[in-house]
UniProtKB/TrEMBL annotation:
Keywords: Signal. It comes from Limimaricola soesokkakensis. Residues 1-20 form the signal peptide. Residues 53-115 form the DUF302 domain. This is Uncharacterized protein (DUF302 family).
């Protein structure tokens, strides 16, 4: 019995997906205000905004409640293309995404995954200049969105 439980735990652990490093930054203002600043920063940097997803509104439409949460999906082919040239599976993780959310107590945060960690399991060189530029841009965008 003990062996069966241990084997099950080992299998569950191995089957669990790896979680990329998430950067989180406290922000000032409402989720909508934070997202407006984020969208402006992304646009000013020359990236393309593909979508702004309002998770809270989606939950409300489904008759459920969820603290305010919005996701911005954006990208720049100058940075994404070199990564996908190294491994086309990078397209599963691109374009980039940033989340602004209310933690349920009224505090708003901005969050994003570190690109180097996101592409870690792919055949992408960690020292690729495009990844470094993505990381720099995401940090800059998070600071702008947070109101710093």
């Amino acid at each position: 019995m003990k062996r069966t439980i241990l084997a099950g735990l080992a299998a569950a652990t191995l089957a669990a997906p790896a979680i990329a490093d998430t950067e989180t930054m406290q922000a000032t203002g409402t989720v909508a205000e934070v997202m407006d600043r984020l969208e402006a920063a992304v646009t000013e940097a020359g990236a393309t905004v593909f979508a702004r997803v309002d998770h809270g509104a989606g939950a409300e439409e489904a008759g459920m409640t969820l603290a305010d949460s919005q996701l911005l999906i954006f990208g720049n082919p100058q940075l994404g293309t070199p990564v996908m040239q190294e491994d086309p599976l990078a397209g599963l993780y691109l374009p980039l995404k940033m989340l602004a959310y209310d933690d349920g107590s009224g505090q708003v945060f901005v969050a994003y995954e570190e690109p180097e960690e996101t592409f870690d399991d792919l055949q992408v060189d960690d020292d690729l200049e495009a990844i470094e530029k993505m990381e720099d841009a995401l940090e800059k965008f998070a600071k702008a969105a947070a109101g710093e």
